[in-house]
């Protein structure tokens, strides 16, 4: 049985795509990109949806759980990907159908893991992906407004199995937010933190950090943190 892990957050720019890309890579799963924005996993992977006439993910969602299963694309050192398309933004597919499709595909792919990246905030695609998830990974930044957003999310999604994943954590984490996170978590598991790696924003390589051959010292440190996150995901979803 495949485990479905959905990466979601109320806000953009917190690391959903980065975490989803690394989790799918390290765990060897399929990455389903449900984020229609062009700054997402699909472009990062090197797939240009505009170069194709059809949108495989949209077609498959419209065909429903009994329809044809989308075939993940594969590339060396990158996660297997079901790419997004900008028309997902205007799709009217209900959340329950999204959930049923993901569940059917997860079985058909015969992989141990399916990782779903999402568009920030509430929408039917994200709702469906959260409903069917064995675990919802929520990247968390140690900032005032980010903590407010997390508080709201914990209130709305208390019924889900969540793993909080502190990301972009500075070398000296601000104590007050570390404490607030512990208070907010209140029993919800918290993954080992991922540091702020400034060079990640400038990186042009498409290889996953956890799969890149001949990593340098900087990259090894980051890859180690993402591996620790993947291990926390394995524990929390088991
Ligand atoms: N741990 C990190 N350290 C430094 N930069 C990061 C880290 N995680 C993500 N980023 C960068 O932050 C930006 C937003 O990350 P992204 O994964 O696209 O967030 P989201 O999907 O939530 O919008 C990207 O430029 C990404 O490279
Ligand atoms: Mg994203």
Structure description:
By secondary structure, the chain is an alpha/beta fold. The chain has a single domain (3-237), classed as P-loop containing nucleotide triphosphate hydrolases (Rossmann fold), CATH 3.40.50. Helices cover 39% and strands 12% of the residues. It has eight helices and six strands; from the N terminus they run βαβααβαβαβαβαα. It has helices spanning 16-27, 41-45, 56-63, 95-109, 124-131, 144-156, 175-185, 217-237; strands spanning 3-7, 30-33, 80-82, 113-117, 135-140, 162-166. It has a six-stranded parallel β-sheet, with helices on both faces. Helix 6 (144-156) links the parallel strand 5 and strand 6. Helix 4 (95-109) crosses helix 5 and helix 6 (144-156) runs parallel beside helix 7 (175-185). The longest helix has 21 residues, at 217-237. The protein is globular and about 50 Å long. It starts with a strand and ends with a helix. Adenosine-5'-diphosphate is lined by residues 9, 12-18, 167-168, 194, 196-197, 200-201.
Bound molecules: adenosine-5'-diphosphate, magnesium ion
The helical percent reads: 25-40%
Q: How much is the radius of gyration in Å?
A: 17 Å
Could you state the order of secondary-structure elements as H and E? EHEHHEHEHEHEHH
> Strand order across the biggest sheet?
3-2-4-1-5-6
Overall 3D shape:
globular
Which class in CATH terms? Alpha Beta
CATH superfamily: P-loop containing nucleotide triphosphate hydrolases
Strand percentage: 5-15%
Brief characterization of the structure:
The protein has 238 residues and is of the alpha/beta class.
């Amino acid at each position: 049985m495949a485990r479905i892990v959905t990466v979601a957050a109320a806000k953009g720019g917190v690391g959903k795509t980065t975490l989803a890309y690394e989790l799918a890579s390290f765990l060897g799963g399929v990455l389903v990109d449900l984020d229609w924005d062009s700054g997402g996993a699909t472009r990062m992977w090197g797939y240009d949806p505009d170069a194709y006439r059809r949108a495989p993910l949209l077609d498959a969602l419209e065909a429903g759980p009994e329809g044809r299963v989308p075939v993940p694309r594969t590339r060396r050192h990158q996660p297997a990907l079901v790419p997004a398309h900008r028309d997902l933004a205007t799709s009217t597919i209900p959340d329950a159908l999204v959930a049923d499709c993901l569940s059917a595909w997860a079985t058909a792919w015969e992989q141990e893991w399916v990782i779903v990246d999402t568009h920030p905030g509430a929408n039917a695609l994200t709702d469906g992906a959260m409903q069917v998830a064995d675990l919802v990974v929520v990247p968390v930044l140690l900032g005032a407004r980010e903590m407010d957003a997390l508080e709201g999310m914990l209130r709305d999604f208390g019924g889900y199995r969540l793993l909080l994943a502190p990301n972009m954590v500075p070398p000296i984490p601000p104590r007050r937010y570390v404490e607030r996170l512990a208070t907010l978590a209140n029993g919800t598991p918290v993954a080992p933190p991922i540091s702020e790696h400034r060079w990640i924003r400038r990186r042009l390589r498409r290889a996953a950090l956890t799969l890149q051959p001949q990593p340098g010292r900087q990259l090894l440190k980051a890859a180690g943190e993402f591996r620790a996150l993947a291990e926390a995901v394995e524990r929390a979803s088991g």
